[in-house]
């Protein structure tokens, strides 16, 4: 990518300095940056000391076998003890750890003392089922407390978990179980989604037919729907966990003991099993969770809306918040069940102080209309977070105004499954925010934007996002495939981590993420970022969401094709289609330049998204290029593509 590549950037000049009262009281201090700059490793030592270690480490970082890192060498700790027991020992056993809100409206309140008993029981049950330190356990559960308890029970006994999204197919589950050689699968009869029970166990039944490593299947009863039962393999949670002893002495494990494997899709077909270990991962997730969200465990009610099957659920529902002794909300279901104000009703009910969600959700709320959040009391909110995709400036501003009451800081947090924890983000109370930009690396993190030859680009230019220093929560490899780890992340540039994202530095050196580098189009030799054109479209008052792809074009190489969802209050009907499309094409030309003017704008009702909220542009490209639509198995809703094709067919 060259400088000229990303020169047509939107001009975003709005600035949101921290409010004085917030800044005065903020947990994150500007001095953190200086401390980290003076001595990076001493800075990380300091953060690691916030955890409770059984044996102290003798070396902060061993990078002698790069890119295979070891952090806090020689240190030992128990991750579950750090997330649960130590809070009870500190006298906070009566503090609520989890406010669970089921989709049908059932609730559960779990204190840290109860969590300690539940995790101990589950740990004892896993040991009874033959799971040992060093084994792998697959977890295929809905968003219920047992998902958190299962993960912590694995951590407690030193077994690595591999959580697989409840939305994934039997085949996806099978291949992940197989790749990790999991001994046990933890699942449930089903979960609630969009107002009705949806089954999970049949997918497990189908998967384990062909996974010889699996000895037992542990089944939580959530919906009480009928399930097929295999007497040799299947065990009810309420039989073996409820009857187990609620006392379990945690044993300390090496800082580099595997904590989990989490599969993420790569550019080739086979998913990559991203491996994370214990000490460094817990250090960075807890440090970032405290500072990025200004987390006060004594009084805050934190809520991250991610699913546990995504890395955000691992780092910012389970490990970061619980290591910090936070009180949090866990919600099982979808934002529009039973009504489109469900999220805001939950914020109001629990007086949520920090909300962490994804741009795709925010744009959906914009589409549903301002009056929905306006009818709830959202005044408890103090910090809003965004993760998963670049957040368009318009969505950012809407989030702050309509959810944050024009008052709350917004943290746009850039990171990946591979990084384990947040890497780039403003600090609330410290950073003057710019809508649409993740802005600055966190203290202790080395980030740059480089050109094709690994030279840092000057301010005002774009290139590839790289991480220049090893960090504590970095992936330790790809499960079973060290070569692929080196090839994917460490071979593009010598000695630095290639993230796969395009980015630009603005005049102040702040970082703007531009989407995956494979989302870059080449139109008549000009490189255009999909994100940039999507942002231009979303800045139009009639547009709620936009996805842009490059479709092959005989004359220009690629042509810009845009799919847009209009806002609910745009007052659109079919008869205005032509006029709206022309208006939007001209709008992009005006905002970015005529070169970016879409060849086609298609008005659709939905966009294809993964469960973690990422738009699957590959499928839209199939539509734009009139091909048969490819594999839809990782979509949150696999019927969306049919809807899109049908809608376009009838309007053209
Ligand atoms: C945490 C998570 C990682 C990819 C990443 C990037 C995109 C995530 C972002 C963002 C712009 C942000 N991404 N956060 N892009 N701004 N704040 O999402 O992990 O599922 O592994 O995805 O998501 O493209 O490379 P993961």
Mean pLDDT: 93
Morphology call? globular
Give the strand line-up of the largest sheet: 12-11-8-6-7-14-15-23
How far do the termini sit from each other? 36 Å
Describe this structure in words.
- By secondary structure, the protein is of the alpha/beta class.
- It contains 20 helices and 30 strands.
- It has an 8-stranded mixed sheet, sandwiched between helices. It has a 7-stranded mixed sheet with strand order 5-4-17-16-18-19-20, sandwiched between helices. Strands 21-22-24-25 form a 4-stranded antiparallel sheet.
- Helix 4 (79-92) runs parallel beside helix 11 (311-323).
- The longest helix is centred in the first third of the chain and has 17 residues, at 112-128.
- Residues 264, 311-312, 386-390, 412-417, 438, 499-501, 513, 516, 612 line the site of ligand 6R9.
- Its cofactor is Mg(2+).
- It catalyses: acetate + ATP + CoA = acetyl-CoA + AMP + diphosphate.
- It comes from Kineosporia babensis.
- ATP binds at residues 388-390, 412-417, 501, 516, 527.
Q: Main traits of this protein?
A:
652 residues, alpha/beta, 8-stranded mixed sheet, 7-stranded mixed sheet, 31% helix, binds ligand 6R9, metal ion binding, ATP binding, metal-binding, ligase, ATP-binding
Explain briefly what this protein structure is.
With 652 residues, the protein is an alpha/beta fold. The chain contains 20 helices and 30 strands. Strand 9 and strand 10 form a beta hairpin.
């Amino acid at each position: 990518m060259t400088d000229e590549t990303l020169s047509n950037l939107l001009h975003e000049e709005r600035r949101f300095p921290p409010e004085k009262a917030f800044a005065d009281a903020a947990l994150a201090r500007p001095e953190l940056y200086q401390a980290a700059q003076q001595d990076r490793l001493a800075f990380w030592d300091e953060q690691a000391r916030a955890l409770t270690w059984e044996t102290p480490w003798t070396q902060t970082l061993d990078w002698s076998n790069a890119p295979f890192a070891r952090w806090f060498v020689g240190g030992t700790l128990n991750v579950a003890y750090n997330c649960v027991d130590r809070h009870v020992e500190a006298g906070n056993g009566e503090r609520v750890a989890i406010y669970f809100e089921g989709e049908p409206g059932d609730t559960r309140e779990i204190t840290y003392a109860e969590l300690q008993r539940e995790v101990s029981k589950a740990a004892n049950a896993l040991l009874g089922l033959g799971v040992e330190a060093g084994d792998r356990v697959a977890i295929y559960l809905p968003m219920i407390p047992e998902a958190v308890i299962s993960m912590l029970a694995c951590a407690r006994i030193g077994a690595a978990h591999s959580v697989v999204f409840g939305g994934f197919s039997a085949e996806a589950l099978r291949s992940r179980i197989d790749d990790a050689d999991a001994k046990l699968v933890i699942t449930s009869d089903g979960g609630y989604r969009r107002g009705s029970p949806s089954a999970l166990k049949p997918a497990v039944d189908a998967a384990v037919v062909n996974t010889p490593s699996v000895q037992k299947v542990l089944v939580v009863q959530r919906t009480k729907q009928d399930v097929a039962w295999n007497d040799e393999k299947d065990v009810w949670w309420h039989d073996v966990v409820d009857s187990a002893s609620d006392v379990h002495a945690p044993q300390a494990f090496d800082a580099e003991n595997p904590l989990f494997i989490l599969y993420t899709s790569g550019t080739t077909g086979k998913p990559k099993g991203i491996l994370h270990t214990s000490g460094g991962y817990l250090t960075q997730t807890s440090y970032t969770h405290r500072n990025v969200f200004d987390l006060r465990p004594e009084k805050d009610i934190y809520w991250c809306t991610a699913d546990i099957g995504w890395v955000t659920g691992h780092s910012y529902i389970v490990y970061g918040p619980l290591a910090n002794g936070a009180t949090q909300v866990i919600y099982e279901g979808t934002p529009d069940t039973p009504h489109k104000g469900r999220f805001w009703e939950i914020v109001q009910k629990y007086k949520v102080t920090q909300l962490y969600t994804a741009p795709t959700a925010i744009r959906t709320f914009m589409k549903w209309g301002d009056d929905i959040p306006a009818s709830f009391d959202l005044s408890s909110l103090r910090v809003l977070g965004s993760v998963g995709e670049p957040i368009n400036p318009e969505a950012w501003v809407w989030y702050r105004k309509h959810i944050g009451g024009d008052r709350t800081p917004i943290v746009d947090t850039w990171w990946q499954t591979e990084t384990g924890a947040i890497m780039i983000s403003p600090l609330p109370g410290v950073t003057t925010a710019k809508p649409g930009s993740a802005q600055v690396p966190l203290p202790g993190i080395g980030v740059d934007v480089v050109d094709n030859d690994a030279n840092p680009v000057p301010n005002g230019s774009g290139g590839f996002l790289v991480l220049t220093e090893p960090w504590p929560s970095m992936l330790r490899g790809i499960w079973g495939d060290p070569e692929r780890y080196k090839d994917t992340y460490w071979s593009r540039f010598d000695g630095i981590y290639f993230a796969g994202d395009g980015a630009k530095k603005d005049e102040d050196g702040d970082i703007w993420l531009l989407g995956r580098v494979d989302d870059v189009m080449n139109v008549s030799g000009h490189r255009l970022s999909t994100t940039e054109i999507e942002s231009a479209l979303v800045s139009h008052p009639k547009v709620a969401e936009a996805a842009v792809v490059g479709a092959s074009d005989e004359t220009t190489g690629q042509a810009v094709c845009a799919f847009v969802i209009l806002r609910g209050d745009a007052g659109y009907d079919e008869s205005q289609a032509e006029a709206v499309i022309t208006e939007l094409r001209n709008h992009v030309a005006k905002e970015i330049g005529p070169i970016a003017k879409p060849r086609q704008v298609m008005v659709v009702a939905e966009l294809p998204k993964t469960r973690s909220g990422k738009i699957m542009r590959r499928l839209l490209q199939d539509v734009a290029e009139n091909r048969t639509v490819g594999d839809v198995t990782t979509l949150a809703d696999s019927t969306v593509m049919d809807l899109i094709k049908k809608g376009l067919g009838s309007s053209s």
